[in-house]
């Protein structure tokens, strides 16, 4: 379980997140939505201890920095260098290093996990391609495969569906649903409001402050969306 209490995040003198109090329910897929600049990515980065923050963040009852190995994180594709000379299987293998000792080399067990993960995302035939040769959707699937080999309890994805094809999006969501049924807890920063009811069990609605949190059918409402996005927002039934 992830708990935040009085979580505040400042960038320079600007408060990006104010007094966020959450209790993320395990074994569910939770979407994080809000307008640009609402602090969606910042919330994930605070839990990961990437950005300075005040307040309390607990994972499984311990301070978050002691539990980071249990979290797999896929940042926005725009923050990743696609031109870096690395093969698909090598990129995926990076997820295995959290379970290895310092200077320990990958063995047959780790490479087997890499192959299994690539098979799940339908990219085993691409294992020797350079990541720069992939489409946006294929590369996002590679990043998810890297999460799979990490075997983490928590999976954080920041805008995973931006700029990808519908086939890749379906493959990713099917895998995430399967991971949920295995008891994994998944947080997704998301922008397409039309897919929220289909994709998520719970929703976090932010605009620097917490507007609403909880089950979709109780919190994904016109009232809460207007609080976050303003009066011009519209989402059909």
UniProtKB/TrEMBL annotation:
Matching entries from SMART domains are given as: AAA
The Gene Ontology terms for molecular function here are:
ATP binding; ATP hydrolysis activity
Instruction: Look up the EC number in the record and give it.
Output: 3.6.1.15, 3.6.3.35
The UniProt keyword set, sorted, is:
ATP-binding, Hydrolase, Nucleotide-binding, Transport
Name the enzyme's class: hydrolase
Q: Per the similarity annotation, which family is this?
A: Belongs to the ABC transporter superfamily.
Which PROSITE patterns does the annotation name? Answer: ABC_TRANSPORTER_1 (PS00211), ABC_TRANSPORTER_2 (PS50893)
Q: Which organism is it from?
A: Lactococcus lactis
Ranges for the ABC transporter domain?
2-233
Q: Which gene encodes it?
A: fecE_1
Which CDD domains does this chain map to? ABC_Metallic_Cations
What name has this protein been given in UniProt? Fe(3+) dicitrate transport ATP-binding protein FecE
């Amino acid at each position: 379980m992830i708990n935040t209490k009085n979580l505040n995040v400042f960038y320079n003198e600007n408060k990006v997140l104010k007094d966020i109090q959450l209790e993320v329910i395990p074994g569910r897929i939770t979407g994080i939505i809000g307008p640009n600049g609402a602090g969606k990515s910042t919330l994930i980065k605070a839990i990961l201890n990437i950005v300075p923050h005040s307040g309390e963040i607990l994972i499984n009852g311990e301070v978050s920095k002691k539990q980071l190995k249990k979290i797999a994180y896929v940042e926005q594709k725009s923050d990743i260098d696609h031109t870096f000379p690395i093969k698909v299987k090598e990129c995926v293998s990076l997820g295995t290093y959290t379970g290895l000792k310092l200077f320990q080399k990958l063995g047959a067990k780790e490479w087997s996990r890499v192959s299994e993960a690539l098979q799940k995302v339908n990219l085993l035939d691409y294992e020797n391609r350079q990541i720069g040769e992939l489409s946006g959707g294929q590369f996002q699937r590679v990043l998810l495969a890297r999460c799979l080999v990490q075997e983490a309890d928590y999976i954080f994805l920041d805008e995973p569906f931006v700029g990808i094809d519908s086939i890749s999006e379906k493959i990713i969501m099917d895998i995430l649903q399967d991971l949920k049924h295995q008891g994994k807890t998944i947080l997704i920063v998301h922008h397409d409001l039309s897919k929220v009811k289909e994709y998520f069990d719970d929703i976090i609605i932010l605009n620097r402050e917490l507007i609403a949190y909880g089950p979709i059918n109780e919190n994904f409402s016109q009232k809460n969306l207007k609080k976050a996005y303003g009066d011009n927002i519209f989402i059909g039934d």
